[in-house]
Amino acid sequence: MKIIKTIFTAAVLMAAVCLPAQNKSAGINLSFWKDICTQPYDSTQTTYVNIGLLSTLNRLNGVGINALGSVIHGDMNGVQITGLANLAGGTMRGVQIAGVSNISGDNAVGLSAAGLVNITGDGSKGVIISGLTGIGGDNNSGVMISGLMNVTGNMASGFQFSGVSNITGQSFNGMMTSGLLNVVGENMNGLQIAGIANITAKSLNGVQVGLCNYATKAHGLQIGLVNYYREDMKGFQLGLVNANPDTRVQMMVYGGNNTAANIGVQFKNQLFYTILGVGSFDQNLNDKFSISTSYRAGLAVPVYKGLSISGDLGYQHIETCSNKDEVIPRRLYALQARANLEYQFSKKFSIFATGGYGLTRYYNKSGNFDKGAIIEAGIVLF
């Protein structure tokens, strides 16, 4: 049996050596090094099977498996697998798998997976998976997944996911998801989700979800702590701070039967507004010092010259401080609804009165600590 295997192996090797000598358009390349092989590099040659340590080929239509690397000057149609790096000077159609990097000079069509980096010179269609960074050329469609960053040139479409950032030079159609940052140089059509910020330099048609969202023009929805558009918005902003160049940033000083002393910052747009506030001496506790923070979002409508009405919903976090005892817990929260009447004496000064209702509740158990009407009054500056 051993003799038969030895004879068979010898026959295969002889065929591999003789075949390319007889016909340069077809062959088997068994390669120890780029010039130590059964099929030396020839600009007219096509390889169908390549196995070795490090190989240099003109064109591969088939399977290439190398321990270190594979360099193909022309197109690669088939499967290219290596322990370190794959290089296809032309277009890759099929599957590229490398421990470190895959590089395609023109286009990549199919699956390209690398432990560190994938680079495509022109464009890609298919699935690109990179341990660190995926870099695409002008036109890319399909799926790009990387541990660190995806970077594409002019146009990209499909789905991009990265641990840190996705960057597209001009336009993107589809969904971008990253741990920190998404950037589109011109137009974004679809969904952006980022742990920190989404930036669309020109026009957004779709949805942005992140801590901070920016678009020059937006047609859709921005959801985040801070949302900003520079020129035009057709849609909604949902966040702690919703702003644009016409947003008025105003200071509020007010008090009432709920919290004695409050100061807040109001971000007021044409109709919608949000308020971030800090208060002290909650009237539902003992007479000792307490502190609270609050957030309110609402809608304001002008009624007559200088007179407007508004309504908002709010959330308040309360630190009871030294008021804590057997009945009063260390922390409480309140859900509140308010209706406001405001009169503006000048562009930078107005007064307002508020009526509403609030529920003060426990964090650690169900039920209300207190509930009742809210009556407040104050001034608005700037």
From TrEMBL:
InterPro entries in UniProt: LA_2272-like (IPR058093)
UniProt keyword annotation of Signal present: yes
UniProt signal peptide: 1-21
UniProt KW keywords: Signal
Domain of life, source organism: Bacteria
Family matches, as NCBIfam families: LA_2272_repeat
Name of the protein in its database record: Porin
Species this chain originates from: Bacteroides faecis
UniProt lineage: Bacteria, Pseudomonadati, Bacteroidota, Bacteroidia, Bacteroidales
